[in-house]
Amino acid sequence: MKVGIHPDYVDTTITCACGEVVHTRSTRPNIHVEVCSKCHPFYTGKHKLMDTAGRVERFQRKYRRQPASS
Predict the structure, then answer these.
(1) Does the pLDDT value for residue 70 go beyond 60?
(2) Could you tell me if residue 45 is inside a domain?
(3) What are the strands of the beta sheet with 30-33, ordered from one edge?
């Protein structure tokens, strides 16, 4: 590998909203996720109401139109 062009690869803690914690390595030190394989309905086989309100608000905030400047 060439020196100085690759990002640092550090120990990472991935934390799910359900409380599950996974330790791995990544270029980011801490990662927070809303669902994981322990709580996702596909993997658990149970239907669960997912909180989509926060996701909709995050989408609207991300793509909010800025007023046109004259």
Answers:
(1) no
(2) yes
(3) 21-26, 10-16, 30-33
